[in-house]
């Protein structure tokens, strides 16, 4: 049920926001406006998490060609990630799943939350029942990048653990600081 929960700001918060909007057009933290500051920071965060997802085996949109939206990356589950997911997690009965059966997107999100400490949203709620039955939602997850850099870096390390485990690498092969540095370098390009 959680993916279906809706949220909005109260009337008081909406009024406060409306009154503060003119201030956002003023210079902020070395940027021409608060909006430019937000754009720069969220683009950097998106790229940081996107690079971690790509490196771990997910497909991520090319935001130079594809419009982004909100604070989420709609990532395609790559073959290596699909193979890393224990088969015992897929196609099991679960009343919470829209079809009553845990499809790959739900299985991966649950496994990553329980075993890797990375929270994602299954894509199934974003598809019609007929498209779910066709398996269209099986290939995607939705993951938020409106997080602190520390949280994104921890998620990146957890994603790399999936890759390392799949490839049989050891933690000594690549240190967490090397991984984080590599992601950070890629995100600034």
Give a written overview of the molecule.
The protein has 189 residues and is mainly alpha-helical. It is built from 7 helices and 3 strands. Strands 1-3-2 form a 3-stranded antiparallel beta sheet, covered by helices on one side. The chain is globular and about 55 Å long. The termini are far apart.
- CATH topology tier name: Aspartate Aminotransferase, domain 1
Q: What's the number of structural domains?
A: 1
> Gyration radius, to the nearest Å?
19 Å
Shape: globular
Percentage of residues in strands: 5-15%
Through-space gap between termini:
39 Å
Oligomer: single chain
Rounded mean pLDDT score: 85
Give the name of the CATH superfamily.
Aspartate Aminotransferase, domain 1
- Kindly name the structural category: mainly alpha
Highest-level CATH class: Alpha Beta
Main sheet strand line-up = 1-3-2
Topology:
Blueprint: H1 11-24, H2 34-56, E1 72-76, H3 79-84, H4 104-116, E2 121-122, H5 129-134, E3 140-144, H6 149-167, H7 176-188
Antiparallel strand pairs: 1-3, 2-3
């Amino acid at each position: 049920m959680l993916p279906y929960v809706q949220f909005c700001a109260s009337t008081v918060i909406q009024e406060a926001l409306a009154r503060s909007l003119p201030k956002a057009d003023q210079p902020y933290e070395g940027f021409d406006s608060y909006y430019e500051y937000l754009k720069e920071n969220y683009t950097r965060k998106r790229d940081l998490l996107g690079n971690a997802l790509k490196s771990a085996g997910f497909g991520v949109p090319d935001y130079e060609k594809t419009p982004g939206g909100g604070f989420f990356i709609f990532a395609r589950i790559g073959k290596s990630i699909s193979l890393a997911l224990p088969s015992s997690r897929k196609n099991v009965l679960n009343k919470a799943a829209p079809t009553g059966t845990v499809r790959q997107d739900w299985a991966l999100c649950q496994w990553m939350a329980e075993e890797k400490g990375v929270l994602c949203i299954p894509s199934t709620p974003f598809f019609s029942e007929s498209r779910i039955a066709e398996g269209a939602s099986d290939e995607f997850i939705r993951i938020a990048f409106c997080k602190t850099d520390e949280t994104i870096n921890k998620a990146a390390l957890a994603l790399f653990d999936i890759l390392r485990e799949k490839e049989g690498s050891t933690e000594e092969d690549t240190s967490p600081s090397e991984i984080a540095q590599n992601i950070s370098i890629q995100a600034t390009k």
